[in-house]
């Protein structure tokens, strides 16, 4: 037989035996032998039982390949076949099972030098000698009694989990064996532990229920597994995962107890930390849900900004974790905050002691307060505080200051407070938007947008062939533009429909005074003005610019709209900005009242009839053309129009009574 034929053949078994710390390639180089790989359980077992290999290195993973099951299957036919078990992690339960199944060696993959240890065990236990009969294994049974005993002791000594053996036949069941891992875990030496009961690990915080559970199991000769607090020699507490198995003699009586100890302190502390965090978050969630729900109801039902401020502060201040709270209104013109508490203090944002408020307003960000500040912003003794801006998009309407003596404002808390600030800001914006219709005084603003837009491109495309007569804004924000055609009507329609964002161009009249209606997708300025509650009075445009006139209730919203427009368009020229009075019932207010009564179809029918000259005499368009432009039959168009006319007249005459 050649030297090559005498080379040991090792079986590498597992789900991914070619990867990990003990991969087949590295193992083959380490033992200078041949390593064959199998991932299939039956195929690997066949190689062993058919004598194709001299030993096996087997993976074990709780959710993967079951190395314990493979070891058990091998031991049914080959009690002495060398098997090295490589579990994915150190586990006292797996180690105990491996020892029970007479594993040759136990080397966790988590060991720093798992590959080197496995190679060393292979050298010790997988031997080859030449002869006519080929390779002959030398199992444990071939060793002398002394060698076999020493081998088993070494396996126990080097096990990665603590192992002890107690004599059940002696009073108080003293320990007769402890391994090296037990010494490392507990700090007690073999000399200090042999001959005494293992209860010396117990202490003041050891759970009495667990010790009773252990005692009851030992009294009945049953195995037991518990997790309990134990103490090291230096007095430090650790969590011990303890598993005890009784060993019976030939007469069935318990002669010994084998115990496995594993330090699981890190795992238990992580579990406790998770549980504490879960309880804390649940308490926070319960409290926050109530706060958010109440404040949301307040901002939805409030009928004035004063109502929002008063009720929101009262509810936030009632929260168990909040010691006090106040809201301040921001005046952008004077750059001050008017604190709505304790005499309506005026806080100058240019002052040093108001720096956190100024930053919160200018940067729209939460800022922390402390006792180093002066004036009304300052935290009182034992308090922590934060100030939250009350914002809607780019507008800051005020600030909310919140203080607490019982907690720090952590990430979850400040996230919720910022959300409340945005909710209050949106509610204020909504109320101020409504005031544009009902207030006696408004801000009138005119701007010109000099960018290239859909409207400027449309004007350039139509040229002298059409004259812009009117603009209507539909309920969905799209624009309806009415053009009186002075050239070829088909050319006007074709030119209009060639512009991006033009939805359609419809001929409303093609007689002596031809008219075309052009529908344009909602441009950015419509959304901006709508969100801040502005009332658009005119929309004019030519090939060079779009000219807008609109009204808002407050200076903040006016500034915010101009800022938004400057953000959306490259060149925005402010051409008018002044305060003016308006009658109690404004044109916009009357229109808003009517629009609330009209359906979308009724409003469209009324708009189309008006802008197309349907009410003029002679009519510039007829019902058939307008019905076609709405994609309905004439009878349906007239039904919508009559209903709209009735609602319009009702609002007019009943409003005058």
Automatic annotation (TrEMBL):
One of its GO terms (molecular function) is kinase activity. This is PAS domain-containing protein. The modification 4-aspartylphosphate is found at residue 59. Residues 267-294 form a coiled coil. GO terms for biological process: phosphorelay signal transduction system. Residues 148-221 form the PAS domain. InterPro entries: BAT_GAF/HTH-assoc, CheY-like_superfamily, GAF, GAF-like_dom_sf, HTH_bacterioopsin, PAC, PAS, PAS-assoc_C. It comes from the Archaea. Keywords: Chromophore, Coiled coil, Flavoprotein, FMN, Kinase, Phosphoprotein, Transcription, Transcription regulation, Transferase. Residues 1-24 are annotated as: Disordered. Residues 9-124 form the Response regulatory domain. PROSITE patterns: PAC, PAS, RESPONSE_REGULATORY. Residues 224-276 form the PAC domain.
């Amino acid at each position: 037989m050649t030297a090559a034929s005498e080379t040991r053949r090792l079986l590498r078994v597992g789900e991914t035996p070619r990867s990990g710390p003990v991969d087949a390639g590295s193992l083959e180089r380490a033992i200078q032998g041949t390593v064959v790989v199998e991932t299939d359980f039956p195929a690997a077992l066949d190689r062993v039982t058919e004598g194709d290999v001299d030993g096996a290195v087997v993976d074990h993973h709780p959710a993967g390949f079951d190395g314990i099951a493979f070891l058990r299957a091998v031991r049914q036919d080959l009690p002495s076949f060398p098997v090295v078990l490589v579990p994915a992690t150190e586990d006292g339960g797996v180690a105990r099972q491996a020892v029970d199944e007479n594993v040759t060696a136990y080397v966790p993959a988590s060991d720093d030098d798992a590959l080197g240890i496995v190679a060393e065990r292979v050298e010790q236990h997988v031997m080859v000698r030449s002869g006519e009969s080929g390779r002959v294994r030398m199992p444990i049974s071939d060793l002398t009694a002394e060698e076999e005993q020493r081998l088993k002791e070494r396996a126990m000594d080097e096990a990665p989990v603590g192992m002890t053996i107690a004599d059940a036949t002696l009073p108080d069941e003293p320990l007769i064996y402890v391994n090296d891992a037990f010494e490392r875990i507990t700090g007690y030496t073999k000399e200090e532990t042999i001959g005494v009961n293992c209860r010396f690990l117990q202490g003041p915080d050891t759970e009495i229920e667990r010790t009773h559970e252990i005692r009851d199991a030992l009294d009945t000769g049953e195995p037991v597994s518990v997790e309990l607090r134990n103490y090291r020699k230096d007095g430090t507490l650790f969590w011990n995962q303890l598993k005890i198995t009784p060993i019976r003699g030939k007469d069935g009586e318990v002669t010994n107890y084998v115990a496995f100890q594993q330090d699981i302190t890190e795992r238990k502390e992580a579990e406790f930390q998770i549980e504490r965090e879960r309880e804390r978050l649940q308490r926070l969630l319960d409290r926050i849900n109530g706060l958010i729900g109440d404040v949301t109801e307040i901002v939805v039902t409030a009928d004035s900004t004063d109502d929002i401020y008063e009720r929101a502060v009262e509810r936030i201040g009632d929260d168990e974790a909040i010691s006090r709270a106040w809201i301040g209104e921001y005046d952008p013109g004077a750059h001050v905050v008017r604190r709505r508490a304790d005499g309506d203090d005026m806080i100058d944002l240019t002052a040093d002691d108001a720096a956190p408020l100024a930053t919160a307003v200018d940067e729209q960000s939460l800022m922390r307060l402390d006792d180093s500040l002066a004036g009304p912003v300052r935290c009182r003794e034992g308090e922590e505080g934060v100030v939250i801006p009350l914002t809607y998009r780019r507008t800051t309407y005020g600030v909310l200051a919140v203080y607490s003596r019982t907690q720090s404002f952590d990430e979850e808390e400040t996230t919720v407070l910022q959300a409340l600030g945005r909710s209050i800001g949106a509610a204020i914006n909504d109320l101020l938007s409504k005031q544009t219709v009902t207030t006696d005084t408004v801000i009138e603003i005119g701007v010109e947008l000099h960018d290239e837009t859909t409207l400027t491109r449309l004007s350039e495309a139509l040229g002298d062939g059409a004259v812009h007569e009117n603009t209507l804004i539909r309920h969905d924000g799209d624009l309806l533009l009415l053009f009186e055609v002075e050239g070829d009507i088909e050319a006007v329609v074709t030119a209009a429909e060639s512009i991006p964002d033009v939805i359609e161009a419809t001929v409303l009249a093609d007689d002596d005074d031809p008219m075309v209606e052009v529908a344009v997708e909602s441009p950015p300025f419509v959304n901006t003005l709508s969100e801040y509650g502005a009332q658009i009075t005119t929309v004019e445009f030519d090939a060079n610019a779009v000219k807008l006139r609109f009204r808002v209730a407050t200076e903040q919203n006016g500034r915010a709209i101009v800022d938004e427009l400057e953000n959306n368009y490259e060149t925005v020229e402010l051409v008018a900005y002044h305060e003016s009075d308006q009658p109690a019932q404004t044109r916009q207010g009357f229109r808003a009242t009517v629009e609330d009564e009209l359906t979308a179809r009724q409003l469209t029918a009324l708009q189309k009839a008006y802008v197309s000259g349907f009410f003029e005499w002679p009519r510039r368009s007829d019902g058939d053309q307008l019905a076609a432009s709405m994609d309905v039959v004439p009878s349906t168009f007239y039904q919508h129009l009559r209903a709209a006319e009735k609602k319009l007249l009702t609002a007019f005459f009943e409003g005058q009574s």
